[in-house]
């Protein structure tokens, strides 16, 4: 199984801390899977101009092809102005409309305060649904108080990250079984 952990911002440390912890949990619990961390701060990504994602070059092509080849994507995003950052939106714009068809997508979200917890429901999930993702319904929301010196200090958050990783992997496995049964119906 190919899993991409996407740190969807080029600034700040909380989202990167959260996604690195997620990758650590994935590596410990599911070492047999191919796990790729895409930290947008480490790449130079072109703005979407409407081309097919295969027509881009360099980092942009690498990121889009890696996402398209994944079975699951765990998106780490901060909350900026009660929405997702432009860097993450640009990634969505670079991909085709059906980019997440047959893919499982889950979310790890950071924000300065609890006031932004609905951003996932009102901003992120509608985009993912439009792009045909199988969305893991629960997500992990973290705020300023859950971090100290670039570490997650809230044990409940750590437990919820473990559960999110497990739910993501189990959903991919369940969808594979469903696809096999569906393919068997066709008889060829």
Quick structural overview:
The protein has 188 residues and is of the alpha/beta class.
In CATH, the homologous superfamily goes by the name Flavodoxin domain
Oligomeric status: single chain
Helix/strand order, N-terminal first: EHEHEHEHEEEEH
What's the average pLDDT? Answer: 96
Shape by Cα distribution: globular
Q: Briefly, what CATH class? A: Alpha Beta
The value of Rg in angstroms is 16 Å
What does this 3D model show about the protein?
The chain has 188 residues and is of the alpha/beta class. Helices cover 43% and strands 20% of the residues. The chain has one domain: Rossmann fold (3-Layer(aba) Sandwich). It contains 5 helices and 8 strands; from the N terminus they run βαβαβαβαββββα. The strands form 2 sheets. Strands 1, 2, 3, 4, 5 and 6 form a 6-stranded parallel β-sheet that branches. It has a two-stranded antiparallel ribbon with strand order 7-8. α1 crosses α5. The protein starts with a strand and ends with a helix.
């Amino acid at each position: 199984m190919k899993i991409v952990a996407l740190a969807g911002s080029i600034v700040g440390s909380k989202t990167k801390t959260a996604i690195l912890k997620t990758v650590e949990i994935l590596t410990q619990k599911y070492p047999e899977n191919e796990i790729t961390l895409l930290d947008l701060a480490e790449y130079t990504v072109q703005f979407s101009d409407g081309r097919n994602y295969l027509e881009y070059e360099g980092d942009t092509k690498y990121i889009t092809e890696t996402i398209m080849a994944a079975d699951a994507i765990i998106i780490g995003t901060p909350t900026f102005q009660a929405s997702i950052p432009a860097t993450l939106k640009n990634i969505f714009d670079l991909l085709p409309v059906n980019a997440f068809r047959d893919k499982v997508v889950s979310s790890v979200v950071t924000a300065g305060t609890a006031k932004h917890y609905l951003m996932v429901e009102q901003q992120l999930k509608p985009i993912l649904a439009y792009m045909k993702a199988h969305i893991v319904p629960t997500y992990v929301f973290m705020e300023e108080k859950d971090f100290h010196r670039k570490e997650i200090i809230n044990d409940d958050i750590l437990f919820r990250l473990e559960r999110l990783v497990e739910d993501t992997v189990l959903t991919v496995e369940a969808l594979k079984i469903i696809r096999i049964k569906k393919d068997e119906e066709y008889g060829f």
